[in-house]
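Hi R.,

Here's the chain you asked about this morning:
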Amino acid sequence: MQKKILGLILTVCMTAVIGAGVGSTTAHAASKSGSSASATDTDGNGVTDNGFVYSVGSGGTAVITGIDNSLFTGTGALAIPDTIVDASAGGTSSGTSSGSSKTSGSSSGTSYKVTDIGNNAFMQMGGITSVTLPTGILTVGEKAFFQCIRLTSVTIPSTVNSIGNQAFGQCDALNSITVAAGNNYYIVDGGALFEYSGGFYKLIQYPTGNSATTYTPGSVVSNRLTAVGDGAFAGAYYLDTVALPASIKDIGAFAFYNCSSLSSMQLPVSVVSIKESAFENCTALKVVTPSENLTTIGNNAFKNCTLLTDAELGESVTTIGTAAFYGCASLKSVEFPHSTTSIGDMAYYGDSTLAKAVIPASVTYIGSAAFSGTPVTLYTHANSAAYKYANTNAIPVVETYTVSFYSDGGALLSSKEVIVGTAAEAPQMAEREGFTLKWSTSFSNITADTVVTASWVRTYKITFSDPFNNRTEVVPVEPYQAAKAPKWTMDGYTLSWDVSNGSYRNVSKDATVYAEWTDASTGFTIDKNTVKPASKGTIIARDSYTYKVTSANVQDPCVTLVSFTDDEATVARVPSVVKEGGVTYKVTIVGASSFENKIALTQVVIGDNVKKIGINAFNGCTAMKLVRIKSKKITRIGDNAFFGIKNKSTIYTFASKQSAYKKLLSVSGLKKKAAFVYKTF
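And here is the predicted structure, written out as C-alpha cells:
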C-alpha cells in the first residue's frame, strides 16, 4: 500500500512539474482515443517527439523502453505507436512500407516497426488508464506496466508471443484484459490472462480491480493449469477465496502478495513449491491446508500473515526460507516433518504467540533469529541441531524420541517426535476386508527411538446380533480361535446364543450368532424371530374397530377395544386377538362406551380373551337381543354396560360361567324385571 501511495504522489507531482515546464497540460504520449499510429523522432536522439524512448535492435526493429517525462503529460489511454520514424536526416517519412521492418522514407527518414515493449517501460505511470497494444508487438517486458494504478483495461494483439513477469502486476484498477483472436500463446478465461505452452496453462494475471470475492479458473484451462505466475493475484484486495485445481504444481513469487481479504488456502496435492513472498501481507489468511508433495517454502512466503493460526507443513517440506513466517502473530504451534533439513533466518521471528515447535533430528540448520521474539519451547532430540540451538539461544527445550510407522511393504507412513514417556499416535490406514491390522511393537510409553511396522492378520467376523433389543457387535477373530461374546443383559432373562448359523468358538468362517433370552420362571424364550410389541398406548385400527395397546409385555401383549364406528352394522365381533407388525395381541378389555348407542346392533360376539367389559360399553344398543360370550375370563362388567338392550335377550355362555356371569350382568344396568334366557354353547 505504501508503494501505491508513493506512486500516486509521484504521479501528481510529476504532472504538476511537467505542466509548469512545458506550459501546457495537453496529453502528448497519452491520447484519449488510444489509437495506434507512427511516432516521429525529429532529432534522432532515441526519443520520439511525443516522448517515447526507444532503441533499435539488430533486426532493424524498435523497442520502446520508456517515456521521457519531460515530454509526457496528462492522463488517459496510452497510444503506443506501431512505427517510429527517425527523421533526423531531414524531411518526414510517411510511414512504413508493407512487409518491411526498416524502410527509408521519401525525404531520407527511416521507419522502424515497433515489436517490443521493454522491461519496466511504463512502470508506475499513474496517468495511464488503458492500453491497446498495436498489431505487430511481439514481446512485453517484465513489469512493463507494473503498478500503473489507474490502468483499467489492456488489449493484447494476436502477434504477442511473450509477456514478462508481472508485466501488468499490481495495477489496482485493472478489471478488463482482452486478447485478440488468433493469438496462439495467450488467452483470457474467466477474466484472467493465461499463458499457453506445451499443452499447459499458466495464470499470469488476474484483473486485480475486479470486485468479485471468489475466483475459480474457467473450464477451458482448469484441467491443464499447472502454475500461478509471479504476482498473478498481487493486490487483489477483494478476493476472499481462490479455488486452485489439482493440476497446479507451482505458486510463483508474490503470487498472492497483499491479498488482504484472502482467508484460507487449500494447496493442491501437486504443489511442490511456494516461491518468495507468495502470500506476504495476506493479513486475513487464517488457514493453509498443506500439499503432501510440498518441498520448499520460499523467503517471506507467509510474512505478516497476522491472523494465520493453522499452517501445517505436510510430510515432504525440506526447506523453510528466510522470514517465511515472520510476524505471524496468531500462529501458536508448528511441527516440522522429518523431511525438513533447514529453517531459514528469522523464519518465525516475532510470532508472539508461538509456544511450541516440534523439530526432528533431520533439521541440521536453523538460521539466525529464527525464533526470536517468540515464547517458544522446542521439542527435539537430545544433542540434535535444534537441541544445541535451544541451549545456545536460551530457549526452553523438551526432549523427544522419534517414532516411525511403516507399512507391511516397508513404506514410511509417518514419523513423529514424541515426548519421552508418552504415547505415539498411529497413522490412519484403510481397512482390508478379511484382515485385522496389528502393529509390531507397543508405542504407548516411548522411551527410545521406535520403529513400528504394520502387519495384516487374516480374520473372520463374528456378528453377535440381538434383533429384539436392536443391538449388534462385530468381533474380529483369527482362524480357529474363539470370539469374545458381548455380556449383554435384560431384566428377568438369561442370555444364550443360537449357533445354528455358525459357532463363535473355533471359528473357521464369518458367521452371525443370535441372542436368545429365556425367562427362567416361565420358560418363555425370545429368539431372532421374536418381534417386540408396540409401546403402551399405541393405536391400532382395523376396519370399524380401534384398539389401544395396554400391555407391551412380550410374553402377554394385550389391547383394549376402544371404539366401533359402524353405525349401520347389525353384528359386532370382539375378536380374541389382533395381529399387527408381526405381534399377536390379546383383546382383553371391551372399553368404556366402545359400542354405546349403536342402535342397529342386534347381536355381539365377545372373544375368549376378554377379562373386562367397561362402563356403558353397550349402553343404548336398543336392538340388541343376542350376546355370545366366549370368554371364561371375565371378572368385571362395568355399570350400565348393557343398559337398554332388549328384554328377553338371549345370552350364550359356558355352563360353568352362567352363575357368575348372571351376578355380573345383574349389576350392569339391566332392568330388574328383564327376562334373560341363558344358553350354553
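One quick note: The radius of gyration is 46 Å.

Cheers,
M.
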